[in-house]
Amino acid sequence: MDNIDFEVTDTFAKKMSKGIPSLSKLKLKRSQGKKKPPVPPAKLARPVPTRLTHSARLPPEVPFGMQRFKPTTTIQ
């Protein structure tokens, strides 16, 4: 019985150790996917002038990273 319990906890630990990096990798992929479109602003600024207006509406105190999330709250 002791061996079985140890195997169960070991497999659970293995699953957890496998699951944590995969979650972090998914989060990194998601964050990179969100960041990559705004990273080249020269390409986006010309066809999409709304991004410039959003940043212009925001107060100067807002950091650059928050500009992506704040416009919806500030426009309301």
List the helices and strands and how they pair.
Layout: H1 2-35, H2 41-45, H3 50-57, H4 71-75
Radius of gyration: 22 Å
Give me the count of strands.
Answer: 0
- Principal-axes shape call: elongated
Number of domains: 2
- Beta fraction of the residues? under 5%
Helix content: 55-70%
- Any low-confidence stretches, pLDDT <50, length ≥5? none
Mean of all residue-level pLDDT scores? 55
What does the largest sheet look like? none
Termini separation (Å)? 62 Å
SSE topology string: HHHH
Output the number of helix runs.
4
Structural class: mainly alpha
Explain this structure.
The chain is mainly alpha-helical. The chain is elongated. It contains four helices and no strands. The protein has helices at 2-35, 41-45, 50-57, 71-75. It folds into two domains: 1-36; 38-76, no CATH class. The termini are far apart. 68% of the residues lie in helices and 0% in strands. The mean pLDDT is 55. Residues 27-37 have a biased composition (Basic residues).
